[in-house]
Amino acid sequence: MKSKTKYYLIKTSLWVLIIPYFYGLSKLLALIGLADLWGNMFDEGLIDNFWQWITLIMYRFFCYIFPALLVMFIKFDKRMTKKSTRYVIWQNQVFCIYLFSYAIIQVLALNMIEWFPMRNAFGSLTFVVSFAGYILTLLRKEKIEFDSNGAIIDVEPYKN
Amino acid sequence: MSLFEASKKEKKMFELDIKKIIYPIEKKELQEQVITILRQFELSVYEIGLKRWLDKILYSTKHDYYDKVDFILKDIFEERLKRTEISSIKKLINELQQAANGIKRSNDDLDTIFRGS
């Protein structure tokens, strides 16, 4: 399989699977009773114990960081030898999908519709994106573009 | 009305409390659960055979959830509700609330999780 085909296959899979993954993960956590542990944490704006804090951080990690870490292991181009390079590419994709979904929720005012299940989703997304951007820029000392396919300057992006 | 009977206002308030719980329910299984609970309560109130038989025939003509629950509630609250039966009405309200919360709870839990994202 051509590297370009592989790239588009992974990209398409991400676009198709990431929101069901996000929803499924949240549903699973709701089923195992994480909401009971969290209680009124968000209404009060206070975390009472360590377990509330660590589960919240882990949830955010599995939502935003883990998918890219997983896809990072798939080699799709011989030029992209470093895992970190592939990680940045897929992390950008993941953020792009989430930001796009968040924008749809906000623009269509789905966050104001009571029955819409994901109306409160992606509350900390913009902070995660900014934070990840700063960290990655600092660690890799490279310019990073947060768009869909031109992941890193100096590594030739695929053209749509 | 004797002193040992609930007032009309009390009965109407109970009816309103029950309707507030059961009307918003949209899930079919939950609606059936509510009807079963109400029906059981209704049958426990009436002991007269003929009334029960007539009631069964009339009830079979109702097909919509709202018609059914309205019919049962009318039947329950048309009867002379004794003061001693008020506690059982309160129990009924609790039971209905628990049944209604079953679905609300799972949605609320998922919403709490999303708020963490």
Structure description:
The complex is a heterodimer of chains A (160) and B (117). By secondary structure, chain A is mainly α. Chain A has one domain. Chain A is 63% helix and 0% strand. Chain A has 6 helices and no strands. Chain A has helices at 3-31, 34-38, 41-44, 50-71, 83-107, 125-140. In chain A, α5 (83-107) runs antiparallel to α6 (125-140). Chain A is globular. Chain B is mostly helical and 117 residues long. The N and C termini of chain B lie far apart (58 Å). Chain B has one domain (8-115). The mean pLDDT of chain B is 79. In chain B, α1 runs parallel beside α5 (86-115). The chains are: A mainly alpha (160), B mainly alpha (117).
Q: Measured on Cα atoms, how large is the radius of gyration of chain B? A: 16 Å
Low-confidence stretches of chain A: none
Which outline of chain A best applies?
Answer: globular
Largest sheet of chain B: none
Helical residue percent of chain B?
over 70%
Q: What spatial form of chain B do the alpha-carbon principal axes imply?
A: globular
The tally of helices of chain B reads 5
Average pLDDT of chain A, rounded to a whole number, is: 84
Order of helices and strands of chain B: HHHHH
- Evaluate the radius of gyration of chain A: 17 Å
The helix/strand class of chain A is mainly alpha
Number of E strands of chain A: 0
